[in-house]
Protein backbone atom coordinates (compact mmCIF):
# COMPACT_ATOMS: atom_id res chain seq x y z
CA UNK A 1 0.00 0.00 0.00
CA UNK A 2 1.12 3.55 -0.73
CA UNK A 3 -0.21 5.48 2.21
CA UNK A 4 -1.35 9.08 1.94
CA UNK A 5 1.23 11.52 3.38
CA UNK A 6 -1.59 13.20 5.31
CA UNK A 7 -2.63 9.91 6.90
CA UNK A 8 0.99 9.06 7.73
CA UNK A 9 1.44 12.34 9.61
CA UNK A 10 -1.94 11.91 11.35
CA UNK A 11 -0.81 8.46 12.49
CA UNK A 12 2.52 9.81 13.77
CA UNK A 13 0.61 12.55 15.63
CA UNK A 14 -1.79 10.04 17.18
CA UNK A 15 1.13 8.02 18.55
CA UNK A 16 2.76 11.26 19.77
CA UNK A 17 -0.13 11.59 22.21
CA UNK A 18 1.39 8.63 24.10
CA UNK A 19 4.49 10.78 24.71
CA UNK A 20 6.79 7.95 23.65
CA UNK A 21 9.55 7.90 21.04
CA UNK A 22 8.46 6.51 17.67
CA UNK A 23 10.44 3.72 16.01
CA UNK A 24 9.44 2.45 12.56
CA UNK A 25 10.41 -1.21 12.29
CA UNK A 26 10.35 -3.55 9.31
CA UNK A 27 9.94 -0.76 6.75
CA UNK A 28 10.12 -2.46 3.37
CA UNK A 29 8.58 -0.79 0.33
CA UNK A 30 8.96 -3.04 -2.69
CA UNK A 31 9.90 -2.86 -6.36
CA UNK A 32 8.22 -6.14 -7.36
CA UNK A 33 6.08 -4.93 -10.25
CA UNK A 34 2.88 -5.59 -8.28
CA UNK A 35 0.02 -3.10 -8.35
CA UNK A 36 0.14 -0.24 -5.87
CA UNK A 37 -2.85 -0.34 -3.53
CA UNK A 38 -4.17 2.00 -0.88
CA UNK A 39 -6.09 4.49 -2.99
CA UNK A 40 -3.65 7.40 -2.78
CA UNK A 41 -1.29 6.44 -5.61
CA UNK A 42 -1.83 4.23 -8.65
CA UNK A 43 0.55 2.25 -10.81
CA UNK A 44 3.02 -0.52 -10.08
CA UNK A 45 5.80 -0.96 -7.57
CA UNK A 46 8.84 -0.25 -9.74
CA UNK A 47 12.30 0.63 -8.49
CA UNK A 48 11.50 4.29 -9.07
CA UNK A 49 8.17 4.05 -7.19
CA UNK A 50 9.99 2.33 -4.32
CA UNK A 51 12.53 5.17 -4.22
CA UNK A 52 9.85 7.87 -4.36
CA UNK A 53 7.76 6.30 -1.59
CA UNK A 54 10.78 5.73 0.64
CA UNK A 55 11.96 9.31 0.17
CA UNK A 56 8.48 10.63 0.99
CA UNK A 57 8.13 8.42 4.06
CA UNK A 58 11.62 9.15 5.40
CA UNK A 59 11.06 12.89 4.91
CA UNK A 60 7.79 12.79 6.84
CA UNK A 61 9.36 10.67 9.58
CA UNK A 62 12.48 12.84 9.85
CA UNK A 63 10.32 15.95 10.22
CA UNK A 64 8.22 14.48 13.04
CA UNK A 65 9.38 15.46 16.55
CA UNK A 66 8.64 12.03 18.07
CA UNK A 67 10.49 9.99 15.46
CA UNK A 68 13.65 8.28 16.67
CA UNK A 69 14.46 5.62 14.07
CA UNK A 70 13.46 3.77 10.93
CA UNK A 71 14.61 0.19 10.47
CA UNK A 72 14.75 -0.97 6.83
CA UNK A 73 13.96 -4.67 6.76
CA UNK A 74 16.26 -6.39 4.26
CA UNK A 75 19.43 -5.26 2.54
CA UNK A 76 19.29 -6.84 -0.90
CA UNK A 77 16.77 -8.42 -3.26
CA UNK A 78 18.79 -11.65 -3.32
CA UNK A 79 17.26 -13.46 -0.32
CA UNK A 80 14.53 -11.13 0.86
CA UNK A 81 11.11 -12.31 1.96
CA UNK A 82 9.25 -9.53 0.07
CA UNK A 83 10.20 -9.53 -3.59
CA UNK A 84 12.01 -6.32 -4.58
CA UNK A 85 12.15 -5.01 -1.01
CA UNK A 86 15.90 -4.46 -0.77
CA UNK A 87 18.01 -1.34 -0.96
CA UNK A 88 20.34 -3.29 -3.27
CA UNK A 89 19.48 -5.52 -6.23
CA UNK A 90 20.13 -9.28 -6.28
CA UNK A 91 23.74 -8.64 -7.40
CA UNK A 92 24.27 -6.18 -4.51
CA UNK A 93 24.24 -3.08 -6.73
CA UNK A 94 22.56 0.03 -5.31
CA UNK A 95 18.97 0.53 -6.45
CA UNK A 96 17.44 4.00 -6.95
CA UNK A 97 16.03 3.84 -3.40
CA UNK A 98 19.53 3.42 -1.98
CA UNK A 99 20.82 6.44 -3.90
CA UNK A 100 17.78 8.56 -3.00
CA UNK A 101 18.12 7.81 0.74
CA UNK A 102 21.89 8.29 0.62
CA UNK A 103 21.35 11.78 -0.84
CA UNK A 104 18.71 12.65 1.77
CA UNK A 105 20.75 11.48 4.74
CA UNK A 106 24.29 12.40 3.71
CA UNK A 107 23.65 15.54 1.63
CA UNK A 108 20.31 17.16 2.40
CA UNK A 109 20.10 16.47 6.14
CA UNK A 110 23.71 16.31 7.26
CA UNK A 111 25.17 19.49 8.68
CA UNK A 112 28.69 19.68 7.29
CA UNK A 113 31.33 22.11 6.18
CA UNK A 114 29.76 24.88 8.25
CA UNK A 115 32.20 27.75 8.66
CA UNK A 116 31.68 30.11 11.59
CA UNK A 117 33.56 33.14 12.85
CA UNK A 118 33.72 34.07 16.51
CA UNK A 119 32.87 37.51 17.84
CA UNK A 120 35.24 39.70 19.87
CA UNK A 121 34.57 37.53 22.93
CA UNK A 122 35.53 34.38 21.02
CA UNK A 123 31.92 33.15 20.87
CA UNK A 124 29.73 31.95 18.05
CA UNK A 125 26.33 30.28 17.62
CA UNK A 126 25.28 27.47 15.38
CA UNK A 127 22.16 25.41 14.80
CA UNK A 128 22.33 21.82 13.59
CA UNK A 129 20.79 18.38 13.78
CA UNK A 130 21.33 16.33 16.91
CA UNK A 131 24.37 14.08 16.77
CA UNK A 132 28.14 14.04 16.69
CA UNK A 133 30.22 16.83 15.23
CA UNK A 134 33.88 17.45 14.63
CA UNK A 135 34.78 21.07 15.30
CA UNK A 136 37.98 22.39 13.75
CA UNK A 137 39.27 25.62 15.19
CA UNK A 138 41.78 27.67 13.22
CA UNK A 139 44.28 29.35 15.50
CA UNK A 140 46.15 32.53 14.63
CA UNK A 141 48.81 31.55 12.14
CA UNK A 142 46.59 28.90 10.51
CA UNK A 143 47.25 25.89 12.76
CA UNK A 144 44.13 23.75 13.33
CA UNK A 145 42.89 22.06 16.46
CA UNK A 146 40.01 19.54 16.39
CA UNK A 147 37.36 18.86 19.05
CA UNK A 148 34.51 16.33 19.13
CA UNK A 149 31.10 17.38 20.42
CA UNK A 150 27.67 15.79 20.63
CA UNK A 151 24.62 17.99 20.06
CA UNK A 152 21.86 16.61 22.32
CA UNK A 153 18.12 17.14 22.37
CA UNK A 154 16.73 19.15 25.30
CA UNK A 155 20.20 20.18 26.45
CA UNK A 156 21.89 23.55 26.63
CA UNK A 157 24.64 22.40 24.23
CA UNK A 158 27.26 24.92 25.14
CA UNK A 159 30.98 24.19 24.87
CA UNK A 160 34.20 25.95 25.78
CA UNK A 161 37.31 24.96 23.87
CA UNK A 162 40.74 25.53 25.34
CA UNK A 163 43.30 25.87 22.58
CA UNK A 164 46.76 24.44 23.09
CA UNK A 165 49.58 26.86 22.73
CA UNK A 166 52.00 26.37 19.86
Could you outline the blueprint of secondary structure elements for this entry?
Elements: H1 5-16, E1 22-27, H2 47-63, E2 67-72, H3 96-108, E3 131-138, E4 144-151
Parallel strand pairs: 1-2
Antiparallel strand pairs: 3-4
Helix pairs in contact: 1-2, 2-3
The computed structural class is alpha+beta
Major pleated sheet: 2 strands, parallel
Shape: elongated
The average pLDDT is 91
Share in β-strands: 15-25%
The count of DSSP E runs of length 2 or more, i.e. the number of strands, is 4
CA-based gyration radius: 21 Å
Give a brief outline of the structure.
By secondary structure, the chain is an alpha+beta fold.
Question: How would you explain this protein's 3D organization?
Answer:
The chain has 3 helices and 4 strands; from the N terminus they run H-E-H-E-H-E-E. It has 166 residues and is of the alpha+beta class. It has a domain at 5-108. It has a two-stranded parallel ribbon. The protein has a two-stranded antiparallel sheet with strand order 3-4. Helix 1 (5-16) packs parallel to helix 2 (47-63) and helix 2 runs parallel beside helix 3 (96-108). The radius of gyration is 21 Å and the shape is elongated. It starts with a helix and ends in a 15-residue tail after the last strand. The mean pLDDT is 91.
Essential attributes:
single chain, 166 residues, alpha+beta, two-stranded parallel sheet, 4 strands
Amino acid sequence: MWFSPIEIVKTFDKFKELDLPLHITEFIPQSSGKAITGGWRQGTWTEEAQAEFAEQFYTLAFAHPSMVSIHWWGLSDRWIWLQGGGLLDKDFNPKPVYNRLLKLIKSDWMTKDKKLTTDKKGQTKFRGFYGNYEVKVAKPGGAMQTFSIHLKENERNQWMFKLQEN
